[in-house]
Design goal:
Layout (H helix, E strand, L loop, with lengths): L16 H20 L9 H9 L2 H11 L7 H28 L8 H5 L7 H10 L1 H6 L3 H14 L9 H6 L1 H10 L10 H24 L18 H25 L8 H5 L2 H15 L10 H18 L2 H11 L14 H6 L1
Helix pairs in contact: 1-2, 1-3, 1-14, 1-15, 2-11, 3-10, 3-12, 4-6, 8-10, 8-12, 11-12, 14-15
Length: 351
């Protein structure tokens, strides 16, 4: 979603359909997970499906974001973080707060409310924080083990709050840092048929694990933002459970990346414009949750219809007409806010 920013134009980079295919699959899982989350009490196997999706969808987005993050923070990249993450957060946080008000739902228009991301918006400030720290992660020896320690320690802490998603920034840090360590180059790997078969086996094997997790653990574990104390376990038990969840999530992410197509597909465009369904689907999910419809998904046909509706929604909101119409909201023009960044003579000479 690049737009003019007052920053010197860079040569256009050809999009990799594989990356967009992964993002396309993940954005469908994000929306489906949120919709199924409103029906877990009535839909057949709803809690297991919900758990299966939540074990991988946002961890995978965090890891992919790490793989695609630049390891140097230049003025140009800082401007893109402001344009693509912070400004959309401000715009949509205000829109969602207005939506709550219009729908006659309690919403305090305070600074605390503004700084506490509503629903899916938590990923924007979290990704901003991770990418600001990427140069540190890239230079730090043992960054991935350290990130795991941070995540485990975050579960033992009670001072991390929902403000700017600090609890999730720490809790999901290992996925992003592993992505930084792997780097974009690993995305060029082309798996053999045997590896793809193994990936299918991993996803099949996770299904009973998802059932066990759904049957024995609170869904709060899947959000990576709650202290062990709140989850009703001691620190030692909480550490073991979170380690297990990290391991399962990483296995699922690997499987999804091995199975994603390397060619142009019908959902490649969904990934290219994934920010649009991501930012917009909260309105539909919340409206669905506040309506009697969430209790009507109590059989297999209804669940399949819900899934079809999710796919249609992603297709629509990632389509060119919607992207064109809503670009001013998703990527607001902020030229007036940014200084013009130009290449130095030395940089031009070596480019």
């Amino acid at each position: 979603m690049p737009v003019s920013t007052g920053v010197a134009a860079a040569p256009a980079v050809k999009r990799d359909p594989y990356i967009d295919n992964v993002k396309g699959l993940l954005i469908v899982l994000v929306v489906l997970g949120h919709m199924v989350g409103q029906t877990v009490g009535s839909s057949p196997g709803g809690k297991t499906i919900y758990t299966f999706i939540y074990l991988c969808h946002m961890p995978a987005f965090a890891m992919l974001s790490g793989m695609l993050s630049a390891t140097e923070l230049t003025g140009r990249r800082a401007a893109s973080l402001l344009r693509d993450l912070l400004v959309p957060y401000i715009v949509f946080q205000l829109l969602y707060m207005s939506f709550y008000t219009v729908m006659d739902k309690p919403m305090d228009w305070t600074v605390n409310s503004f700084l506490s991301p509503i629903y899916q918006l938590w990923f924007l400030p979290a990704l901003f924080a991770w990418r600001m720290l990427t140069p540190l992660f890239a230079q730090l020896r043992g960054a991935f083990p350290i990130a795991i320690v941070v995540s485990l320690a975050a579960g033992a802490a009670t001072v991390l709050t929902h403000t700017f998603s600090l609890n999730r920034v720490a809790g999901m840090l290992p996925f992003f840092v592993l992505g930084v360590w792997l780097g974009r180059g690993r995305l060029a790997y082309r798996p053999s048929g045997a590896v793809r078969l193994a990936a299918v086996g991993v996803l099949v094997a996770v299904a009973p694990i998802a059932y066990l997790v759904a049957s024995n653990l609170s869904s709060l574990w899947l959000y990576w933002n709650s202290a062990y104390k709140r989850l009703g376990v001691e620190v030692s038990e909480g550490v073991l459970i979170r380690l297990g969840l990290i391991a399962v999530s990483l296995a699922m992410i690997w499987a999804i990346m091995m199975l994603a197509s390397r060619r142009q597909t019908f959902f490649t465009g969904w990934g290219a414009n994934s920010m649009y369904p991501y930012l917009l689907h909260g309105f539909v999910v919340l409206a669905f949750a506040w309506s009697p419809l969430d209790r009507q998904v109590d059989n297999i046909p209804a669940l399949l219809a819900l899934t079809a509706g999710v796919v249609a929604f992603v297709w629509l909101t990632a389509s060119r007409p919607v992207v064109w119409a809503l670009r001013p909201l998703v990527s607001p023009p902020i030229d007036w806010l940014l200084k013009t960044v130009t290449k130095s003579p030395s940089a031009t000479a070596t480019s």
